[in-house]
Design goal:
243 residues, Arc Repressor Mutant, subunit A, Chorismate lyase, 6-stranded antiparallel beta sheet, two-stranded antiparallel sheet, 7 helices
Length: 243
């Protein structure tokens, strides 16, 4: 790496910030394209005349910000732009991934019949401890986990839910076909990932995540209640309003 080509540093700029600025500059100019392997902590420490801890902070912060991604045992690489979803649409995540020209895949962690908790029963408009279908699926973009989906579904409205092959389709696509959406309630909040979610999404426990609670309805009633969790550095939400 030629640090002499880096832009001059602002007065009193911390050294880790100078490294971050240099890396961002290399990416923005196209010198380091997506999936480019960036210099190691040792290389950055040597080239910038700083400690490994300082170099590590720069790489860690850029990873948290979604600029870089780390692969255990392989190194740190320039990340692809963070995918975006819409607050105003209920889109099939497989379609979102395909629209970016990427490969969609998923892992089915749970698919079972369960009894509704108080909160789930209230959300679905059912009696407490009523029978519900419960699924947990991790959705991936180019094999990188981007969404944990935990969904509770009303068996009376979609009795064949548990018989579906969700490795070939998504719950969203199936439900849109058999119980077309007429209404959706959505709540978004920031959370720290608990252990099970963090493990499934391949992130550290307590990492910042974006959590979406979504209740969907068809003309026959409330169909499902879902919890969608995205790693904060791998996903963003947006909305566009026209008047």
């Amino acid at each position: 790496m030629n640090t002499a080509s880096a832009p001059s540093a602002p007065t009193n700029e911390p050294r880790y910030a100078a490294i971050k600025r240099h890396i961002r500059g290399q990416i923005e100019t196209g010198e380091w394209p997506v999936h480019f392997r960036v210099p190691s902590e040792n290389d950055l420490a040597r080239d910038f005349g700083v400690s490994r801890m300082t170099a590590r902070r720069a790489l860690s912060e850029l990873t948290d910000e979604g600029v870089l991604m780390r692969s255990q045992g392989l190194g740190t690489f320039v990340a692809e732009p963070v995918p975006a979803g819409s607050l105003l649409e209920v889109r099939n995540i497989a379609d979102e991934v395909s629209a970016r020209g990427h490969s969609y895949s998923n892992r089915i962690l749970l698919l079972e019949e369960a009894t509704a908790s108080t909160d789930v029963a209230r959300a679905l408009g059912m009696p407490e401890e009523a029978r519900v279908f419960h699924s947990i699926i991790v959705h991936c973009d180019n094999a990188l986990p981007i969404q944990w989906e935990e969904r509770f579904t009303n068996p009376a409205l979609v009795p064949d839910y548990l018989q579906q092959d969700f490795s070939a389709t998504t719950p969203n696509a199936y439900l849109s076909r058999v119980a077309p959406l007429t209404e959706a309630d959505t709540t978004v909040e920031a959370i720290a990932a608990e252990a099970a979610v963090a493990e499934a999404l391949a992130i550290d426990t307590h990492s910042a995540c974006l959590q979406i609670w979504r209740r969907t309805k068809s003309r026959t009633g409330t169909v499902s209640f879902a919890r969608l969790v995205h790693p904060g550095n791998r996903y963003r939400l947006g909305a566009q309003l026209r008047f």
